[in-house]
């Protein structure tokens, strides 16, 4: 099994099965993607599973993405007829904004499931929507193997799935840069060669990432730059937005 396939946990298969089984019961799927790469972080086969069930796409981590690019992506999805909004799930206005978007599209009762690839903020979003109510509230057909329903006042029901949907192109460097699929330690220097040209100019950094590592003091005995430590710091820093607002997927061809 290749490196890009070996990380695929069995619980993801179970979640995909659950999605297929429950799609017809749900009012909509809330599909979370990373605003820095909204297309590549979608899971295209999801459309085959959900049938006619509505999807609302949330461009999450919008505070880490280039503002202009995000505006273009929003227009792109809207032209395609997709309900979409950009937000940062950790923000306090998340619940109000998403509930409003749902009410515009749907009528109660609202039966919803949050789905998406790993590390795009699904759990953060769900916790914002249900608060302290993230507990099982009753059984529904087809959810006896792990998924839990959370029932809130006003006709709101949220499906808390135990797993995640996997990306379609798990070998793409952008998915590794965002932490959506693992990047082995011996591949991180190569990954940084992709990331660094996107971040060093706007962040006022040296054009050579090795020089950045030297300035940060990532040195081995003899004053040689520790490239592994430097690469690890750059990848982690990029994922956390330490190098500014950067989008890594262009909406120009949308």
UniProtKB/TrEMBL annotation:
Q: What is this protein called?
A: Ribosome biogenesis GTPase A
GTP-binding listed as a keyword? yes
Q: Which Pfam families match?
A: MMR_HSR1
GO annotations under biological process? Answer: translation
For this protein, the record's InterPro entries field holds: GTP-bd (IPR006073), GTP-bd_ortho_bundle_sf (IPR023179), GTPase_MTG1 (IPR016478), P-loop_NTPase (IPR027417)
| Keyword annotations from UniProtKB, A to Z | GTP-binding, Nucleotide-binding
Q: Where is GTP bound in this sequence?
A: 60-63, 119-124, 163
Q: Does the UniProt entry include the keyword DNA-binding?
A: no
Q: Which SUPFAM superfamilies match?
A: P-loop containing nucleoside triphosphate hydrolases (SSF52540)
What organism is the protein native to? Sulfobacillus benefaciens
**UniProt GO molecular function:** GTP binding; GTPase activity
Domain annotation G: ranges: 112-166
